Amino acid sequence: MKIKHLLLFALIPTFLVMGCVSKKDGSAKKKKSDGDWKWVTEQFADIRIIRYKVPGFDELSLQKKTLLYYLSEAAACGRDMIYDQNYKHNIRIRRTLENVYKTYSGKRTGDDWVAFHTYLKRVWFSNGIHHHYSSKKIMPGFSEAYFDELIANSAQDKFPRDRGQSVADLVTMLKPILFDPKVDFKRVNKDKGVDLAAASANNFYDGVTQKDVEKYYAERIDPKDKSPISWGLNSQMAKSGPNTIERVWKVGGMYGQSIEQIVSWLKKASGVAEGPEQKAAIDLLVQFYETGDLKKFDEYNIAWVKDTESEIDFINGFIEVYGDALGYRASYESVVQLTDPVASKRIKAISERAQWFEDNSPIMDEHKKAKVKGISAKVINVVMESGDASPSTPIGINLPNANWIRSNHGSKSVNLANIVEAYGQASKSSGVLEEFAYNQDEVVLARKYGGLPDNLHTDMHEVIGHASGKINPGVSEPHTTLKSYASTLEEARADLVALYYLYDQKLVEIGLMPSIEVGKAHFNDYIRNGMMLQLRRLEVGEDIEEDHMRNRQLICKWVIEKGAKDNVVEKKMRDGKTFFIINDYKKLQFLFGELLKEIQRIKSEGDYNSAKALVEGYGVKVDPKLHQEVLDRVEKLHIAPYSGFINPVLVPVVDGSGSISDVKVTYPDDFTEQHLYYADKYSFLPNKN
C-alpha cells in the first residue's frame, strides 16, 4: 500500500542540496549551481511540476551506481503498460498527440496551441486521458476543428495507424473518444448501482461484467487457503466465446514486448547485485515475468522482504489495485531507491517497537497479532520512478500487500525523503496555512514543528499501520470480502494507527518527538485537510472517488459526529469563513482509537455491510456549500492542487572497451522534453492490445 501526499502544504526541513550536470539526453540543458536550483518548473491546468534531488549518489561505488542505472532502465521500460492498463486507446492517443507536437508545421502560438500543449501535458501527467486522481476523462480545451487542423498539418506517415487504416479513419475513431464526455467517462467507476467492471473505462476487463468476475473467482478462491495467490493481479480478464479467461501479462503474453525489456535490464542488475539475497530476489522477479506464475511472485516478495541490508532497493511489478474498482488487478509501477542512513534512524525506532504498538493498540485483543514479524523500515531517496508512481508519486510505501506474507514473513516500509523535501520546498510561503488556520496559535504550532508531524505520520502509517491487526481464520483477503471498499478502509486503518499514536507520550519517551504538542499540530492539520483542503481537488457537485480522500473525510466526519456531544471538534464561522477547531485533543485521540477498533473489526470479520455503511455514510458525499467556499478561498492563492515530478536521468559513461566506467545523475528541468525523450526511448507496445 502507499500513502499519497498527506498534508499538501507541510513545511519540510531541508536536506542536502546538489547541482546539475549537463547532458544531451532529456536532462537539464545547462549546469546549475545550488543557488540556481529550480524546484517548481511550471504550472498548468490543476498541476504544478517539481524536481527532486538524489543526495549521496555521487559518493556511491561504481557497482552501486551501475545497479541503480540498470534498475532505472528496467523501471522506464514498463512505461507503456500503465498507459494501456488505464485505457485501451491511451497509447494510440498519446502517440497521435506526440506526433502533432513534434511535426506540426502551423502556428505554434496562441490560445489554441497552448490548449493543445496543455492537454498533451495532462495526458502525460495522468498516464492517459483520465485524470490521475478523480479518474474522470480530461476534456480538451480546443475544438474538433482545431484538432483537424493539427492533424492535417503534421507528418502523416508518423501517425499510429493500424494496417489499412487511413489518417482520416484514425481521426474518425479518436474524435468521440476525445471530445464526447459520455464516451468512457470514468477510468474507475465506483458509483452506486453500477457494474464496477463494465462501467469503468480501464483496460483491466474486456467484455466481462462484475458478475462474471465474481463468479470466476468464487470458483477458484479457497477461504481456507493460508497462502492464497493474489488472484488477477497480473492479467486482463476477457471473454472468449462463452468462457471467461485471463490474458496474463508476461514474456510471450500480453505486454510481452515491454516485459522482455524489463527482464533484460533486471538480468543485468542481477549481475551487479549487492549480495546473494538481493540477487535471489531479482532472479525470482525475472522468473515471475517470464512465467506469469503468481506463486513465483509470492516467492519473489518473500525473498525481497528478507533483503534488509542492501543500500539500494527497488519496487517493480504489478503492485497496487487502486485502479480496479473490484480490487483484483494491479497497475504497473516501479520505484528505484537509495537508503538515507541518517534519516532511517527515526523510522527504525518505530519498526523496532512494532510489537509494543500492536500490544497497546485500541483494537480488540482477538484482532491483534501475537507476534509482529519482520517489519523493515527505512527512509530512502528516490532515484527513478515509473508507471503508476510517476509523475504523481506517493510519499510512503509499505509492501507486500498480501496479508499472509506480511503476517508470516514481514514487510518493508519506506518514507520517500527527497520527495517529501521537494514538496515542502515547492510549498513554502503558499499562504494556505494562514488562510485556513483559525488563529495565530495554530500557525505558530505548525511552523514550530515543520515537517516532523507529517514525517512521523507517514512512518507510522506505513510501518505499523499497514502491518497491524490480523484477519480472522476462514476470512478471505479484504478485496474479496470488502470489495470496492477494501482500499479505502485499509488506508483509513493505517491513518488511524498513526493518528492514535501521534498523541501518545511513548513517542516522546523514545525520542521521536520533543513534545506531545507535535500531535496537536498534526491533529489540527489532519482535520483541516480532511474536512476542507482536500476538497480543492474536486469539481463542485462531485462525490469523492479516490480512496485516500475518502479515507480522510471518513475519519474526520466520523470523529466530529461522535464527539459532537462533548464539542470535541467545533465548527466555527468568522467573516463568512468556516474553520474547524479542536477543543479536546485527548478525547479526539480516544475517538481515533474507537474508529480504528471498528475498522479493524470490519476487516478481520470481512463485514461488507458495515464497510459499505461506513464509507458511503462518511467518506463519499461532500457538503456543496463548504466545497464552494474552499474553492473560492484557495483560488486567490493561485496554487495548483496537484503536484508531480520530473525524474532525474542516469547516464552511463562508457570507456574505450565498452564498459561502464561511471554513471552520472542529471536533472532535467523541462516536463515536455522528458516525456518526448521517454516516448522515443521506451515505446515498446503496439498501438492496441
Would you give an account of this structure?
- The protein has about 700 residues and is α+β, with helices and mostly antiparallel strands.
- The protein is about 45% helix and about 15% strand.
- Strands 1-10-11-9-8-7 form a six-stranded mixed β-sheet. It has a three-stranded mixed β-sheet with strand order 2-3-14, with helices on both faces. It has a three-stranded mixed β-sheet with strand order 4-5-6, with helices on one face.
- The longest helix has 21 residues.
- About 5% of the residues have low confidence.
Blueprint of the fold:
Elements (H helix, E strand, L loop, with lengths): L1 E2 L36 E5 L2 E5 L10 H15 L2 H8 L3 H14 L7 H16 L17 H9 L14 H13 L25 E2 L3 H9 L16 E6 L2 E6 L7 H16 L4 H16 L2 H13 L5 E9 L10 E9 L4 H8 L2 H6 L15 E13 L8 E4 L3 H7 L1 E6 H10 L5 H5 L3 H10 L2 H14 L12 H4 L4 H16 L4 H4 L7 H15 L15 H16 L6 E6 L2 E6 L2 H21 L2 H12 L4 H12 L6 E5 L2 E6 L5 E7 L4 H11 L8
Parallel strand pairs: 3-14, 4-5, 9-11
Antiparallel strand pairs: 1-10, 2-3, 5-6, 7-8, 8-9, 10-11, 12-13, 15-16
